[in-house]
Amino acid sequence: MARNKLFIVNIFDFGIAVEEHWPTKADMEEAIIQRDRDHRRFKLADVDYDGLLSFDEFVNFLHPEGVKHMMTAVVRETVEDMDKNKDGKISQSEYIGKMVTVVSLC
User: Fold this and answer.
1) How far apart are CA 78 and CA 75, in angstroms?
2) Residue 80: which of 89, 71, 72 has the closest Cα?
3) What is the 3-state secondary structure (H, E, C) of 74-105?
4) What's the pTM value of the predicted model, to 2 decimals?
């Protein structure tokens, strides 16, 4: 049985596991977006501004949804994901298109 080649590509300290191929441009762009999101979240989670995350700060970093001071990160990421034309606004079609998925059963 042939073994797949597995590459770990380090992009801005964000490791991407890639099987059989090098990262595409889309892979690279996604890694950069994720790095920027993590940077924003880290800054919000670091409430004592010491450049380190305590246990509680790290929990807030990983799970910001229920933390009041982290909500800006959650909302910003949601807007970024839904805003398909990147105009900084969510249109009705962008919102509904994100919430409704049509599955073909044929």
Assistant:
1) 5
2) 89
3) HHHHHHHHHCCCCCCCCCHHHHHHHHCCCCCC
4) 0.65
DSSP string, 36-49: HHHHHHHHHH-TT-
Say how many residues make up the chain.
106
**Residue owning tokens 């805003």:** 83
Please report, for residues 26, 53, 96, the alpha-carbon distance to residue 77 in angstroms, rounded to integers and kept in the order given: 18, 21, 17
14 phi, psi to nearest 5 deg: -115, 105
pLDDT tens digits for 54-82? 999 999 999 999 899 999 999 999 898 88
How far CA 24 is from CA of 15, 20, 28, 37, 39, in Å, comes to: 14, 12, 6, 20, 23
What are the pLDDT digits (tens) for 20-33?
566 678 878 888 88
